[in-house]
Amino acid sequence: MGRANKKNHNNNNSKRKIMIVDDDKEFLEEIRQLLEFYGYEAKSFQDAASALRAARSLDPDLMLLDLKMDGMDGFQLADRLTQSMETSDIPLIAMTGYYTFSEQQIRLMDALGIKAFIKKPFKPLVLIEKIEAVLAENSK
Q1: Following DSSP, what letter does each residue of 45-91 receive, concatenated?
Q2: pLDDT 10s digits, 66-91
């Protein structure tokens, strides 16, 4: 069964897998707990390289990724995900502490398939609403 069919038959959050990629260990744990509280299956990664390797086998329904990380950053991770046939259809939401975005960064996020972004710090319900909106849009 392909990704689209799997998502069309899945209306229960508990079956939705979300990968979280952020180099801040405490933040990562808070987001993982939040997602699990809302019924999602959450897998967390402290670096982009391990998340990239895991994305192929986990086949997540969505990825939350920090744009500013040491080593491979969120922009580079998104680029690698979109370049691979195995991971190119994973919807991405960027989480960032950037307070302003240049027009170039916005175009880059769009080109890399980033469906939405959320500025840190954010309210938990705002994140859940963005996730639900992106998942709903992706299942159409």
Answers
A1: ESSHHHHHHHHHHH--SEEEEESS-SSS-HHHHHHHHHHSTTTTT--
A2: 998 999 999 999 999 999 999 999 99
